């Protein structure tokens, strides 16, 4: 598993006392993420839009991306339908990631119509799924 998945699992388990299920290297030092920064070099100097109805997931994904691609510009959106603000974010984006399990059809249809950038769809609702969509999608490189 990639570091961001383990970090999300660690965050989810912190309140339960089950963090011993996470590999010790992740628990001791979040710098393990630095080892994977090369997977995200294509995001440097790029504008990225993260669309999800789970704002905390978008914020956490943005923090991770800024760590591995410091010159990237990340914006998030949780609109339920298209609007002028979402249009502006879409038009500026080089990459768009949509959390398909945490999205409104009206907004995703609007994004698809307005975007000239490639759109990646995350497999889940969590922040690591948003990050994985940026890592795994070969058309974003």
Oligomer: single chain
Question: Approximately how much helix is present in the residues?
Answer: 40-55%
- CA-atom Rg in angstroms: 15 Å
Share of residues in strands: 5-15%
Strand order of the largest sheet: 2-1-3-4
Main sheet specs? 4 strands, parallel
**Averaging pLDDT over every residue, what do you get?**
84
Question: Mind explaining what this structure looks like?
Answer:
There is one protein chain. By secondary structure, the chain is of the alpha/beta class. It has one domain: Response regulator (Rossmann fold), CATH 3.40.50.2300. It is built from six helices and four strands. The chain has a four-stranded parallel sheet with strand order 2-1-3-4, sandwiched between helices. Helix 1 runs antiparallel to helix 6 and helix 3 packs across helix 6. The longest helix has 14 residues. The mean pLDDT is 84.
